[in-house]
Design goal:
Distance between the termini: 35 Å
Largest sheet: 8 strands, parallel, barrel
Number of strands: 9
Radius of gyration: 20 Å
Number of domains: 2
CATH superfamily of the largest domain: Aldolase class I
CATH architecture of the largest domain: Alpha-Beta Barrel
Helix content: 40-55%
Order of helices and strands: EHEEHHEHEHHEHEHEHEHHHHHH
Strand order of the largest sheet: 1-2-4-5-6-7-8-9
Shape: globular
CATH class of the largest domain: Alpha Beta
Length: 342
Protein backbone atom coordinates (compact mmCIF):
# COMPACT_ATOMS: atom_id res chain seq x y z
CA UNK A 1 0.00 0.00 0.00
CA UNK A 2 1.16 3.55 -0.69
CA UNK A 3 2.65 4.90 2.55
CA UNK A 4 0.34 7.90 2.88
CA UNK A 5 -2.65 5.56 3.28
CA UNK A 6 -1.14 3.46 6.05
CA UNK A 7 -1.91 5.62 9.07
CA UNK A 8 -3.91 8.52 7.66
CA UNK A 9 -7.00 9.45 5.70
CA UNK A 10 -5.17 11.57 3.11
CA UNK A 11 -6.48 14.82 1.66
CA UNK A 12 -5.48 15.20 -1.99
CA UNK A 13 -5.28 18.43 -3.93
CA UNK A 14 -6.92 17.67 -7.28
CA UNK A 15 -4.93 18.41 -10.43
CA UNK A 16 -6.44 21.46 -12.17
CA UNK A 17 -5.01 22.85 -15.41
CA UNK A 18 -3.80 26.41 -15.03
CA UNK A 19 -4.40 26.36 -11.25
CA UNK A 20 -2.39 23.77 -9.38
CA UNK A 21 1.09 24.96 -10.23
CA UNK A 22 3.95 24.67 -7.76
CA UNK A 23 3.05 27.96 -6.03
CA UNK A 24 -0.54 26.95 -5.36
CA UNK A 25 0.49 23.44 -4.30
CA UNK A 26 2.91 24.83 -1.73
CA UNK A 27 0.17 26.99 -0.25
CA UNK A 28 -2.24 24.05 -0.02
CA UNK A 29 0.47 21.90 1.53
CA UNK A 30 0.94 24.56 4.16
CA UNK A 31 -2.76 24.37 4.99
CA UNK A 32 -2.66 20.61 5.47
CA UNK A 33 -3.17 18.95 2.09
CA UNK A 34 -1.40 15.59 2.29
CA UNK A 35 -0.83 14.58 -1.34
CA UNK A 36 -0.18 16.77 -4.37
CA UNK A 37 -0.83 15.92 -8.02
CA UNK A 38 0.59 18.13 -10.78
CA UNK A 39 -1.42 19.77 -13.51
CA UNK A 40 -1.88 17.21 -16.25
CA UNK A 41 1.11 17.03 -18.58
CA UNK A 42 1.02 15.96 -22.22
CA UNK A 43 2.93 12.75 -22.85
CA UNK A 44 3.58 13.96 -26.39
CA UNK A 45 5.07 17.20 -25.06
CA UNK A 46 7.41 15.24 -22.79
CA UNK A 47 8.22 12.77 -25.56
CA UNK A 48 9.19 15.71 -27.81
CA UNK A 49 10.92 17.59 -24.94
CA UNK A 50 8.69 20.64 -25.41
CA UNK A 51 10.10 23.47 -23.27
CA UNK A 52 6.71 24.70 -21.99
CA UNK A 53 5.67 21.16 -21.08
CA UNK A 54 8.83 20.74 -19.04
CA UNK A 55 7.88 23.73 -16.87
CA UNK A 56 4.80 21.81 -15.67
CA UNK A 57 7.09 19.20 -14.12
CA UNK A 58 8.73 21.59 -11.66
CA UNK A 59 8.05 21.10 -7.97
CA UNK A 60 9.68 21.76 -4.60
CA UNK A 61 10.76 19.05 -2.18
CA UNK A 62 8.33 20.46 0.40
CA UNK A 63 5.42 19.38 -1.81
CA UNK A 64 6.08 15.66 -1.40
CA UNK A 65 4.42 13.22 -1.64
CA UNK A 66 3.72 14.43 -5.16
CA UNK A 67 2.63 12.72 -8.35
CA UNK A 68 3.10 13.87 -11.94
CA UNK A 69 -0.09 13.34 -13.94
CA UNK A 70 0.22 12.33 -17.59
CA UNK A 71 -2.36 12.29 -20.36
CA UNK A 72 -2.36 10.97 -23.89
CA UNK A 73 -3.69 8.16 -26.07
CA UNK A 74 -0.58 6.33 -27.24
CA UNK A 75 0.52 3.58 -24.81
CA UNK A 76 4.12 3.48 -26.06
CA UNK A 77 4.56 7.25 -25.89
CA UNK A 78 2.98 7.39 -22.45
CA UNK A 79 5.29 4.66 -21.19
CA UNK A 80 8.33 6.45 -22.58
CA UNK A 81 7.14 9.77 -21.14
CA UNK A 82 6.70 8.12 -17.74
CA UNK A 83 10.29 6.89 -17.79
CA UNK A 84 11.55 10.34 -18.79
CA UNK A 85 9.62 12.02 -15.97
CA UNK A 86 10.84 9.48 -13.46
CA UNK A 87 14.42 9.92 -14.57
CA UNK A 88 14.32 13.73 -14.57
CA UNK A 89 12.15 14.56 -11.55
CA UNK A 90 11.77 11.48 -9.33
CA UNK A 91 8.16 12.15 -8.26
CA UNK A 92 6.71 9.94 -5.53
CA UNK A 93 4.27 8.43 -8.02
CA UNK A 94 2.97 8.80 -11.55
CA UNK A 95 -0.72 9.38 -12.22
CA UNK A 96 -2.69 8.74 -15.40
CA UNK A 97 -5.47 11.09 -16.47
CA UNK A 98 -8.52 9.17 -17.64
CA UNK A 99 -10.93 11.86 -16.43
CA UNK A 100 -10.42 15.19 -18.18
CA UNK A 101 -13.67 16.17 -19.98
CA UNK A 102 -12.23 19.10 -21.97
CA UNK A 103 -12.91 18.65 -25.66
CA UNK A 104 -9.42 19.60 -26.86
CA UNK A 105 -8.06 16.72 -24.75
CA UNK A 106 -10.86 14.29 -25.58
CA UNK A 107 -10.56 15.02 -29.32
CA UNK A 108 -6.96 13.77 -29.19
CA UNK A 109 -8.13 10.50 -27.62
CA UNK A 110 -6.96 11.53 -24.17
CA UNK A 111 -8.58 12.03 -20.77
CA UNK A 112 -12.11 10.72 -20.37
CA UNK A 113 -12.39 9.63 -24.01
CA UNK A 114 -10.46 6.48 -23.03
CA UNK A 115 -13.32 5.45 -20.71
CA UNK A 116 -15.14 4.38 -23.90
CA UNK A 117 -12.29 2.06 -24.89
CA UNK A 118 -11.46 -0.32 -22.05
CA UNK A 119 -8.90 -2.32 -24.08
CA UNK A 120 -6.97 0.90 -24.76
CA UNK A 121 -7.27 1.90 -21.10
CA UNK A 122 -5.75 -1.45 -20.12
CA UNK A 123 -2.92 -1.10 -22.65
CA UNK A 124 -2.05 2.39 -21.41
CA UNK A 125 -2.12 1.46 -17.73
CA UNK A 126 -0.21 -1.76 -18.32
CA UNK A 127 2.45 -0.08 -20.45
CA UNK A 128 3.14 2.64 -17.87
CA UNK A 129 3.21 0.23 -14.93
CA UNK A 130 5.59 -2.06 -16.78
CA UNK A 131 7.83 0.85 -17.80
CA UNK A 132 8.36 2.23 -14.29
CA UNK A 133 7.96 -0.78 -11.97
CA UNK A 134 8.49 -0.80 -9.01
CA UNK A 135 7.64 2.92 -8.92
CA UNK A 136 3.94 3.38 -8.04
CA UNK A 137 1.35 4.40 -10.62
CA UNK A 138 -2.13 5.69 -9.83
CA UNK A 139 -5.01 6.85 -12.01
CA UNK A 140 -7.93 9.26 -12.05
CA UNK A 141 -11.22 8.39 -13.74
CA UNK A 142 -14.77 9.67 -14.05
CA UNK A 143 -17.74 7.43 -13.43
CA UNK A 144 -18.30 7.07 -17.18
CA UNK A 145 -18.70 8.87 -20.48
CA UNK A 146 -22.44 9.49 -20.09
CA UNK A 147 -25.35 8.59 -17.86
CA UNK A 148 -26.03 5.62 -20.16
CA UNK A 149 -22.45 4.32 -20.05
CA UNK A 150 -21.43 4.48 -16.39
CA UNK A 151 -18.65 1.91 -16.06
CA UNK A 152 -16.46 3.06 -13.17
CA UNK A 153 -16.43 -0.28 -11.37
CA UNK A 154 -15.34 -1.99 -14.60
CA UNK A 155 -12.56 0.51 -15.34
CA UNK A 156 -11.36 0.46 -11.73
CA UNK A 157 -11.10 -3.36 -11.77
CA UNK A 158 -9.15 -3.20 -15.04
CA UNK A 159 -6.78 -0.65 -13.57
CA UNK A 160 -6.28 -2.76 -10.46
CA UNK A 161 -5.51 -5.82 -12.60
CA UNK A 162 -2.94 -3.74 -14.51
CA UNK A 163 -1.05 -2.90 -11.34
CA UNK A 164 -2.44 0.57 -10.63
CA UNK A 165 -2.00 1.15 -6.88
CA UNK A 166 -4.82 3.67 -6.21
CA UNK A 167 -7.63 5.24 -8.19
CA UNK A 168 -9.33 8.62 -7.75
CA UNK A 169 -12.95 8.70 -8.91
CA UNK A 170 -14.69 11.93 -9.88
CA UNK A 171 -18.40 11.37 -9.41
CA UNK A 172 -19.51 12.92 -12.70
CA UNK A 173 -19.60 11.70 -16.29
CA UNK A 174 -17.69 13.29 -19.14
CA UNK A 175 -20.93 14.70 -20.52
CA UNK A 176 -21.69 16.41 -17.20
CA UNK A 177 -18.40 18.24 -17.20
CA UNK A 178 -18.56 20.12 -13.92
CA UNK A 179 -22.33 20.60 -13.86
CA UNK A 180 -24.95 18.77 -11.84
CA UNK A 181 -24.15 16.72 -8.77
CA UNK A 182 -21.42 14.16 -8.19
CA UNK A 183 -22.82 10.63 -7.87
CA UNK A 184 -21.33 9.31 -4.67
CA UNK A 185 -23.31 6.08 -4.94
CA UNK A 186 -21.09 5.10 -7.86
CA UNK A 187 -17.97 6.16 -5.99
CA UNK A 188 -19.09 3.95 -3.09
CA UNK A 189 -19.61 1.03 -5.49
CA UNK A 190 -16.09 1.43 -6.85
CA UNK A 191 -14.66 1.42 -3.32
CA UNK A 192 -16.49 -1.87 -2.69
CA UNK A 193 -15.39 -3.39 -6.00
CA UNK A 194 -11.59 -3.11 -5.70
CA UNK A 195 -8.93 -3.80 -3.10
CA UNK A 196 -6.75 -0.80 -3.92
CA UNK A 197 -7.41 2.57 -2.24
CA UNK A 198 -10.16 4.66 -3.80
CA UNK A 199 -10.05 8.45 -3.45
CA UNK A 200 -13.43 10.16 -3.71
CA UNK A 201 -13.74 13.42 -5.64
CA UNK A 202 -16.67 15.74 -6.24
CA UNK A 203 -18.75 18.32 -4.33
CA UNK A 204 -16.56 18.37 -1.22
CA UNK A 205 -17.04 21.83 0.27
CA UNK A 206 -16.88 21.48 4.05
CA UNK A 207 -15.46 19.27 6.78
CA UNK A 208 -18.97 17.86 7.27
CA UNK A 209 -18.94 16.67 3.64
CA UNK A 210 -15.72 14.77 4.26
CA UNK A 211 -16.99 13.22 7.47
CA UNK A 212 -20.21 12.12 5.76
CA UNK A 213 -18.45 10.51 2.80
CA UNK A 214 -15.80 8.95 5.04
CA UNK A 215 -18.45 7.35 7.26
CA UNK A 216 -20.83 6.16 4.52
CA UNK A 217 -18.38 4.76 1.96
CA UNK A 218 -15.18 2.72 1.99
CA UNK A 219 -13.10 5.44 0.36
CA UNK A 220 -9.52 5.68 1.59
CA UNK A 221 -9.07 9.40 0.95
CA UNK A 222 -10.63 12.58 -0.41
CA UNK A 223 -9.61 14.74 -3.38
CA UNK A 224 -10.59 18.41 -3.39
CA UNK A 225 -10.50 20.66 -6.44
CA UNK A 226 -12.75 23.67 -7.04
CA UNK A 227 -13.37 24.31 -3.34
CA UNK A 228 -9.61 24.61 -2.83
CA UNK A 229 -9.45 27.15 -5.64
CA UNK A 230 -11.77 29.44 -3.66
CA UNK A 231 -10.47 28.83 -0.15
CA UNK A 232 -7.42 26.55 0.11
CA UNK A 233 -7.56 26.79 3.90
CA UNK A 234 -10.36 24.21 3.60
CA UNK A 235 -7.61 21.59 4.08
CA UNK A 236 -6.77 23.05 7.49
CA UNK A 237 -10.46 23.08 8.47
CA UNK A 238 -11.02 19.48 7.35
CA UNK A 239 -7.90 18.10 9.00
CA UNK A 240 -8.75 19.87 12.26
CA UNK A 241 -12.28 18.42 12.20
CA UNK A 242 -11.07 14.89 11.42
CA UNK A 243 -8.48 15.04 14.21
CA UNK A 244 -10.54 16.78 16.90
CA UNK A 245 -14.22 16.66 15.96
CA UNK A 246 -14.42 20.43 16.40
CA UNK A 247 -14.63 23.24 13.87
CA UNK A 248 -12.06 25.98 13.40
CA UNK A 249 -13.22 29.57 13.32
CA UNK A 250 -13.32 30.84 9.73
CA UNK A 251 -10.52 33.20 8.69
CA UNK A 252 -11.07 36.93 9.05
CA UNK A 253 -11.23 39.17 6.01
CA UNK A 254 -7.78 40.49 6.87
CA UNK A 255 -6.43 36.92 7.00
CA UNK A 256 -7.97 36.16 3.62
CA UNK A 257 -6.33 39.21 2.10
CA UNK A 258 -3.02 38.26 3.71
CA UNK A 259 -3.27 34.88 2.00
CA UNK A 260 -4.12 36.44 -1.37
CA UNK A 261 -1.16 38.81 -1.10
CA UNK A 262 1.16 35.97 -0.13
CA UNK A 263 0.03 33.92 -3.12
CA UNK A 264 0.71 36.81 -5.49
CA UNK A 265 4.09 37.57 -3.88
CA UNK A 266 5.14 33.93 -4.18
CA UNK A 267 4.14 33.85 -7.84
CA UNK A 268 6.07 37.06 -8.53
CA UNK A 269 9.15 35.56 -6.88
CA UNK A 270 8.77 32.42 -8.99
CA UNK A 271 8.39 34.41 -12.21
CA UNK A 272 11.54 36.37 -11.43
CA UNK A 273 13.48 33.11 -11.47
CA UNK A 274 12.25 32.20 -14.96
CA UNK A 275 14.78 32.82 -17.77
CA UNK A 276 13.18 35.44 -20.03
CA UNK A 277 16.13 37.20 -21.64
CA UNK A 278 16.49 40.97 -21.60
CA UNK A 279 13.25 42.52 -20.39
CA UNK A 280 12.27 45.74 -18.69
CA UNK A 281 12.30 45.87 -14.87
CA UNK A 282 8.95 44.89 -13.42
CA UNK A 283 8.04 42.60 -16.30
CA UNK A 284 8.10 39.51 -14.06
CA UNK A 285 5.67 41.19 -11.66
CA UNK A 286 3.33 42.07 -14.52
CA UNK A 287 3.48 38.53 -15.92
CA UNK A 288 2.81 37.08 -12.48
CA UNK A 289 -0.16 39.34 -11.74
CA UNK A 290 -1.65 38.67 -15.17
CA UNK A 291 -1.30 34.92 -14.60
CA UNK A 292 -2.95 35.30 -11.19
CA UNK A 293 -6.12 36.97 -12.47
CA UNK A 294 -8.11 33.74 -12.89
CA UNK A 295 -7.16 32.65 -9.38
CA UNK A 296 -8.04 36.07 -7.97
CA UNK A 297 -11.50 35.73 -9.51
CA UNK A 298 -11.89 32.44 -7.63
CA UNK A 299 -10.82 34.03 -4.36
CA UNK A 300 -13.44 36.76 -4.82
CA UNK A 301 -16.34 34.31 -4.77
CA UNK A 302 -18.27 34.68 -1.53
CA UNK A 303 -16.48 37.89 -0.51
CA UNK A 304 -18.48 41.04 0.10
CA UNK A 305 -18.17 43.35 -2.86
CA UNK A 306 -17.23 40.41 -5.10
CA UNK A 307 -18.56 42.05 -8.25
CA UNK A 308 -16.42 45.15 -7.75
CA UNK A 309 -13.45 42.99 -6.85
CA UNK A 310 -13.73 41.02 -10.07
CA UNK A 311 -13.80 44.24 -12.10
CA UNK A 312 -10.60 45.37 -10.41
CA UNK A 313 -8.90 41.98 -10.55
CA UNK A 314 -9.38 41.93 -14.32
CA UNK A 315 -6.88 44.79 -14.59
CA UNK A 316 -4.58 44.37 -11.58
CA UNK A 317 -0.94 44.55 -12.67
CA UNK A 318 1.13 44.96 -9.51
CA UNK A 319 1.33 44.05 -5.85
CA UNK A 320 0.88 47.71 -4.96
CA UNK A 321 -2.42 47.80 -6.83
CA UNK A 322 -3.52 44.64 -5.03
CA UNK A 323 -2.69 46.27 -1.68
CA UNK A 324 -4.89 49.24 -2.58
CA UNK A 325 -7.77 46.94 -3.56
CA UNK A 326 -7.42 45.01 -0.30
CA UNK A 327 -7.33 48.14 1.86
CA UNK A 328 -10.44 49.53 0.20
CA UNK A 329 -12.33 46.23 0.53
CA UNK A 330 -11.46 45.85 4.22
CA UNK A 331 -12.47 49.47 4.90
CA UNK A 332 -15.81 48.97 3.14
CA UNK A 333 -16.62 45.72 4.98
CA UNK A 334 -15.15 46.00 8.49
CA UNK A 335 -17.68 43.59 9.99
CA UNK A 336 -16.89 40.71 7.64
CA UNK A 337 -15.17 37.95 9.55
CA UNK A 338 -14.98 35.18 6.98
CA UNK A 339 -15.22 34.05 3.39
CA UNK A 340 -18.50 32.15 3.01
CA UNK A 341 -18.43 28.91 1.05
CA UNK A 342 -19.47 29.54 -2.53
Amino acid sequence: MLPWFQDRFPLYLAPMAGITDTTFRQLCKGYGADVMVSEFVSSEGIFRKNERTMEYLDFEESERPLGIQLFGGDPEHLAEAAKIVLDWKRPDFLDINFGCPVNKVVSKNGGSSILRDCPLLARIAGAIVKAVTPHPVTAKIRIGWSADTINATTTARILEDCGIQAVAVHGRTKEQGYSGEADWNVIAQVAEAVRIPVIGNGDIVTAHDVEHRKSTTRIAGIMIGRTAMQHPWVFREIRHYIDTGTHLAPPSLAEIWAHIRRHCAMEIARQKLQPRGLEAPGTAELHAMQSMRTQLMSYSRGMSGARQLREKFAHVASLAQLDDIAAENIAQHPSDSHLAAA
